[in-house]
Amino acid sequence: MNRTLVVLVEDVPGVLNRVAALFSRRGFNIESLTVGHTDQPGMSRMTIVVDTDDISVKRLAALLYKLVNVVQVNDLTSTPCVNRDLAMIKVNATPETRTQIMQVVDVFRARIVDITNNSITVEITGDEEKIEGFIDVLRPLGIIEMARTGIISMARGAAPVPDMTEQIYYEPAGAAA
Length: 177
Known about the structure:
4-stranded antiparallel sheet, 5-stranded antiparallel sheet, 2 domains, Alpha-Beta Plaits, 4 helices, elongated
C-alpha cells in the first residue's frame, strides 16, 4: 500500500541525502519525493510516498527520528488530505493537431506555457489520476518531453496531524530491521 509521509526537517546540506539513503538501505523504493521550504525559516518539508505496510511505516518513522535533522514525521495516508502533482508536458504540435491539443488543455483545465512552430508545452496541476488521464490523451499526439514534481500533500482543516512519535513500533533488542 502506498503511504504518504510528511517529514519536517532542518534545512541543512545533506539532509535529503541522509533521508533517501535511509530508505535505500532498508530496501524501500520511494515512489515520489518532493522537498520544499516551509513557512518556518530554516525548515523544509519532505513529502515521501513509499509502498509499505503499517508496521514498516512505523519502523521507518522511528528510523527517521534517529536522524539528527528530522524534526517531525506524519503519516497522512488515512488522513483526509489535499494531494497535488504538477507536470509540464511538451507535445509535438503540427498545424493539424494544435486545435485538438488546445481543446484537451481546456477540458483538463491545464495551461499552455510555451508554443513553438512544432511543439506546445503544457502545465497541469491536480491529483495523480487527473495527470495520468491527461498524459494518456496526449500520448497518441507525441509527447516529446515530460517533467513531474511528485506529490505534495496537506491534511484538510485547521487541526494539525499528530506526529508519529506516539505510534512508533519499537523493535526488541537484537531484532533485524
